[in-house]
Design brief:
Rossmann fold, 10 helices, seven-stranded mixed β-sheet, about 20% strand, binds S-adenosylmethionine
Length: about 270
């Protein structure tokens, strides 16, 4: 995976939270938080917490006695997350690489990670770390996107950008967020990390936006796809966004738009 794929900084966190979170992350955060909260954990670790959509969903389901340590590789994402939930003393925000967690063995009852594992350069190591910090019987809850063809807006944006940059198409969305969609591989890598009880569900949802321009901004400007576009030509970000919006409008119409999204939701018990 390109290093550029892991850089969520500059304008990305704000646009990510404003456009991408309501578009694709909120329904999966509700689902994952519900699964995690039903196990009644007191000490929860979240990795790759981003701007905190899952953190907020978990916090709203846990009692006052519980606590969450929400971590992410990129401090700018956590700064954005913390600013939105300033008064919740149950949440501690801390920069951390999910592949080298700064916590003792068996500290947590549950670990959650929403759409983060695709970004790990060594997933087995990330799974080993989640398992190491879990108490015996504790669970690791996470999700990962299905292939890009099952996620319509991302697919249309990627195809549109390939026509704008035909020599060197920006493939971030296909390569990384939608590049880890083999359920058997996920199971094998969890097993290699020491997890024994593993369940994997497919989960469909509908992505909705007020206009085709919103998903174009979300993907082109609020993800590391922006880094890839700007690496080709910094002055063409707006042109690329408009080109993607036009392609979305041709496929989904000019008014409010809806597209299919699909992910895998995984529970692994230590
Ligand atoms: C698609 S975002 C998901 C963020 C959040 N969980 C959500 O649902 O909106 C992926 C996140 O993974 C983080 N990330 C990438 N590599 C990481 C690593 N090695 N350890 C921890 N976080 C990582 C990025 O900073 C980014 O915030």
């Amino acid at each position: 995976m390109a290093t550029i794929d892991r850089v969520f900084a500059g304008s990305i966190p704000e646009i990510y939270e404003r456009f991408l979170v309501p578009l694709i992350f909120e329904p999966y955060a509700r689902d994952l938080a519900g699964r995690l909260a039903r196990t009644g954990p007191q000490h929860v670790l979240e990795t790759a917490a981003g701007t905190g959509v899952l953190t907020r969903a978990i916090a709203s389901r846990l009692p006052a006695s519980a606590n969450i340590v929400a971590t992410d590789l990129n401090q700018p994402m956590l700064d954005h997350a913390a600013a939105q939930r300033p008064n919740d003393r149950r949440i501690a925000w801390r920069q951390a690489d999910a592949l080298a967690l700064p916590f003792e063995d068996q500290e947590f009852d549950a670990v959650g990670c929403q759409f983060g594992v695709m970004f790990f350069p060594d997933r087995i190591q990330g799974y080993r770390e989640a398992r190491r910090v879990l108490k015996p019987g504790g669970s690791f809850f996470f999700n990962a996107w299905d292939r890009i063809s099952e996620n319509e807006f991302a697919d249309v944006v990627t195809e549109a950008l390939a026509t704008l940059f035909p020599q060197d198409p920006p493939r971030f969305l296909a390569r990384t967020p939608h590049g880890y969609h083999d359920a058997e591989k996920i199971r094998d890598e969890l097993t290699a990390a020491g997890f024994a009880e593993i369940s994997i569900d497919a989960a469909d949802a509908i992505s909705k936006a007020a206009s085709p321009r919103d998903p174009a901004i979300a993907y082109c400007q609020g993800t590391p796809l922006r880094n890839e576009i700007e690496a080709r030509d910094k002055s063409r970000l707006e042109e690329a966004t408009t080109h993607a919006a036009d392609a979305l409008a041709r496929r989904f119409g000019n008014g409010p738009v809806e597209g299919r999204i699909r992910a895998f939701v995984i529970t692994a018990i230590r």
